[in-house]
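Entry 14. Structure prediction run on the chain below.
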Amino acid sequence: MHRQLVAMFAWLAFVAASSACAQAYPNRPIRFVVSVAPGGTQDAVARMMANQMSGQIGQSIIVDNRGGATGIIGCDIVAKAAPDGYTLLYAATVFAILPSVVRQLPFNVSKDFTPITRIAVLEGALLLVHPSLPARSVRELIELAKARPLSYGSPGVGNSLHLITEMLNVSAGTHMLHVPYKGAGPALNALLGNEVQVMFIPPTVAVQYVKAGRLRALGYSGAKRLEATPEVPTIAEAGLSGFGMDLGWHALFAPAKTPGSIINRLHAEVRRALEVPKLRDFLLAGGYEPKGEPPAEFQKIFEADIKRYAELARAAKIGPE
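Output returned:
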């Protein structure tokens, strides 16, 4: 207990000294704003990170889910927050995609945020169908989608799961209907309830439903098969030669003008957390590759991804709304 108190007050003193905006309230928690509803992969990993980092610094870290509007609601909260290290954005790749799919954003993704680091990169997603669908391979799904109307779910317009399914539509010549939800959790529930028939889902939350027989996995979008489901072929192996796409990253951002000393401290704590076997094994089992690049390096990756996803959105015929 004594060590936790010492760590907590050290963190509070550090934040107060680093920013004129900071006010060190003894019981004030740090907040990870997660711009999706509870229950999906992004939420699950954010909670693991919050729990680990909280123990490291001896300061409470809460996960604040603000789903809806393709993540814009949560992102806007952080954009307008005080740059004092207490309010952070736990974002997925959709954050870099937003400028390509939303005509007017209430913030500028490049100017109103300070990148801290990537948590991890997701190497691929499982292509799942509801068991009632008479398709047991990617080829059979394509034939079925050409013969009758099918719908697919995603956590919202413009996210990487929406993008990858539209790339599948383009590659296969199908026209499955997109049904957006307020997060991966609600979209997954829709698939389980047969409201939609198809969905790409990150392995972290999907594998348990495949193992239980509640959903059927037809393919994996990564470059190689997933260790947790070695019987599931890659989509390229299953008949769509050349098809492959990672699911991007999870990352931490702070409001613009957050002092560099705070950014560097947060980066150091993320790196420390990613070395913990329990957390590292959790990420690897879910198909993630732990990262933790320095802020300056992640800044370059982020800016390059904004351009890369703009090109992919155009190829998938997803325009600004």
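The chain is about 40% helix and 20% strand.
Filed with the rest of this week's runs.
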